[in-house]
Write a structure and sequence with these properties.
The chain contains four helices and no strands. α3 runs antiparallel to α4. The longest helix has 30 residues. It starts with a helix and ends with a helix.
Length: 75
């Protein structure tokens, strides 16, 4: 019976290792949808998007848009 106990622990460890690998694979697969550091430069920040939408809808004029955009960018 002692030999079976050793195999039982080995089986248990293999099952735990397999579960960890599955979790890591799922996290990596779902994490690929998040923005990476390289994508940040390609996309304007959310505040700029909202400002552009307001300008497109006519809620603010060109001068106000440009002034607020400069403020957001720290110019």
């Amino acid at each position: 019976m002692g030999a079976w106990m050793g195999w039982g622990w080995l089986f248990f460890l293999l099952v735990v290792a397999g579960a960890v690998l599955i979790v890591v694979a799922v996290v990596r697969a779902t994490g690929s949808r998040t923005t990476s550091a390289g994508d940040v430069a390609a996309r304007p920040p959310r505040a700029e998007e909202i400002l552009a939408e307001r300008y497109a809808r006519g809620e603010i004029d060109k001068d106000e848009y440009q002034e607020r955009l400069r403020t957001l960018r720290g110019d």
